[in-house]
């Protein structure tokens, strides 16, 4: 019976040592590399396992640093992606505002162009001949013929002027 107990104890130490070497992180082994410890425990079952527990096994105070997963993370979990996304959003917004300013400046130049051309240098209705429109938008003032907008002087508009019904 004592021989069986010794054989079971040696087998338990061997298996436990082998599993412990396999499960240990390769950066935490002491003395030799993980591969060397694995070979020692396999070839020298009792001595290799005993040496592993005495020399090669990491100390309890040595805790493996959590390894970050190598698989892709979700974009909303990645701070670099979020930072880059915010930078791209700001650049797009700045580009959109720049285009709006350029378009407004071009429109102002185009609107101002016909008003400033003239022999006398006057602009607007004062320099125009009676009965003609001097604006490029097609709207006319009160005394000129042409299409009239609802709500102009003398017209009743149900939406804008309820008293004029």
Word description of this protein:
The structure is a single chain. With 165 residues, the chain is an all-alpha fold. It has helices at residues 2-23, 34-43, 45-56, 79-116. Helix 1 runs antiparallel to helix 2 and helix 2 packs antiparallel against helix 3 (45-56).
Summary, kept brief:
With 165 residues, the protein is mainly alpha-helical. 50% of the residues lie in helices and 0% in strands.
Indicate the topology.
Blueprint: H1 2-23, H2 34-43, H3 45-56, H4 79-116
Helix pairs in contact: 1-2, 1-3, 2-3
Mean pLDDT: 74
List SSEs in N-to-C order. HHHH
Number of strands: 0
Share of residues in helices:
40-55%
End-to-end Cα distance = 118 Å
Number of helices: 4
What fraction of residues sit in β-strands?
Answer: under 5%
| Low-pLDDT segments | 121-125, 133-141
* SS-derived structural category: mainly alpha
Q: What's the shape?
A: rod-shaped
What kind of sheet is the major sheet? none
From the alpha-carbon coordinates, what is the Rg to the nearest angstrom? Answer: 44 Å
């Amino acid at each position: 019976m004592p021989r069986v107990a010794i054989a079971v104890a040696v087998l338990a130490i061997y298996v436990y040592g082998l599993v412990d070497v396999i499960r240990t992180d390769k950066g935490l082994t002491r003395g030799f590399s993980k591969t060397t410890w694995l070979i020692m425990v396999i070839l020298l079952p009792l001595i290799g396992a005993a040496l592993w527990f005495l020399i090669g096994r990491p100390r309890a105070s040595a805790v493996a640093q959590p390894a970050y997963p190598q698989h892709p993370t979700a974009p909303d979990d990645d701070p670099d992606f979020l930072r880059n996304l915010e930078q791209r959003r700001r650049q797009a917004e700045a580009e959109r505002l720049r285009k709006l300013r350029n378009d407004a400046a071009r429109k102002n130049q185009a609107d101002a162009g016909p008003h400033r051309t003239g022999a006398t240098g006057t602009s607007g209705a004062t320099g125009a001949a009676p009965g003609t429109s001097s604006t490029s938008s097609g709207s006319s003032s009160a005394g000129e013929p042409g299409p009239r907008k609802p709500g102009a002087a003398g017209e009743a508009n149900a939406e804008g002027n309820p008293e004029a019904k």
